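W.,

You were right to be curious about this one. When I first looked at the sequence I had no strong expectations either way, so I just let the prediction run and decided to look at it fresh. Below is the sequence, 537 residues in total, followed by the output.
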Amino acid sequence: MYKVLVVDDETLIRKRIIFGFDWESWGYQVVSEAGNGPDALEILEREAIDVAIVDIAMPDMNGIELVREIRRRNYPIEVIFLTGHSNFEYAKEAMAEGVYYYILKPLDEAEFSATLGKLANKMDKEQERERTMLNLKESRDHINLFLKCKFFSDLFHARIGIEEDELKEKLEQQGVRLHNGYRVVVIKIEKDQDSELNIKQELDRMLQFLTGKMPGLQNIITLYDVLDDCIILFIDISENPSLMQPQRCMELFKPVCSGMEGTEYACVRAGISREVKSTEIVSDGYEEALTALQNTMMHEEKVLEYGMLLPFLEKKFRISSAQKGELRREVESGGLEETARKLKKIFSDIGEEKVGYSEFSQTVKQIFYLLSEIAFESNLDIKGYMDGYSNLETALLGIKSIDGMYAWLYGIAEKIIASREFFRKRGQNIELVYKVKQYIMDNYWNQELTLTDISDYLHVTPPYLSGSFKKAVGMSVTQYVSMIRLEKAKEILCSRGMDVRSTAEQVGYSDEYYFSRCFKKYFGVSPSSVIRINNFD
């Protein structure tokens, strides 16, 4: 609805205009009235008005003088003049002030309606044009920002080769003054649920938090690493001396990360490089910040600076061949308590030593590969024991603590032991398991697929099917269906160019948001990110 102000010194005419017509049917709403020019100006000072209907012949300040003052004050409103036959010459003068709509008194409803219709059509087109221009500007800005982010992302991930001099020139063009010292900050944001990425919105929000928590922050360059889903900041230390000291730098960024949590973000962590100069900002600075970010889990901190981590990064940690042999024997012999104790000892040592993330991840890989060997030798598919993660790298990304990683690996060992015991006592019910898997492969797309459907097809009871399948495969039938659906979804997203909703429906999910949460838990990346990365390539 366009908002209307009626200005006429004759009360009866003013009330006739206000109450004599069906304004809403024309797309208008009369929100105020005035009996003279000065009162109208007071209303325009405090209210947003779209259209003013003004009588030309008014005492003290006539309609022409009122419009001149409106234009002088730059009020963005349209004006319709009311004029009598005797003072029609005023209308010509009004055109010089940009008023092209006038209505003769006494008012004729058909003429009045036609004039208002023309004006509404004009304002609709102007608003559409403004929206179009704004969208074009935002689209252009977004494209330019995306190309800028892509350039840096290519450099970070060594996707392009570039000569030193050319690199310096391009960095200078992006506002990176190479003779100054910089800190590189990599910030990882995890959302509560998957949503379409708006790079500009994410970067604007980050700048808002930064300037709110660190007033006076200057010469900061914000980027988004599309491949790693990280926000990257280049901060000029020469213009932000408070960031010179590592401890002070960490203290400044902690409230930024904490402040961003609790909105739509579930977890925000940051890694900070040491001071870097010249083209090192692309290689050394980024790698240092990324390493610091990875180690936030190990030290249970939201923010870490690379230089303060060096003593821990230099530490070495390996599990011995004897420890691996003992762990293997306990799993193969079904010793749950001893398996738990030996795993707990390894992870307790990691925590006490405070080793770097690289050593931690190498240790995790050794244990995982050991368990994978045992599963393979026992004809077991370890993927069914991984608690919804598609692979080890996904688990390393998704599990946020040392204790959490211990629990995950112990859970795998526990399921392997249980499955080996099941097969030993009851034999391998391969035929039943095979038929269940085949039925699921043929029907995973069906949103209504249930355990009862499968048991009816195989002529067994649901409890028997559920228990037998879980003991043999290491996961429930429902979990296996989810795994198959997610694997198929990944294939579709990577090859067919479908959007998230269509993909969810095609693999058997009726709720795209639930599908997105399951997908991110399983693969460690959201479905929209998979689409974005494929488009990026």
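Here's what jumped out at me. The CA atoms of residues 227 and 533 lie 6 Å apart. And, maybe more interesting for your project: The mean pLDDT is 81.

Coffee later to discuss?

I.
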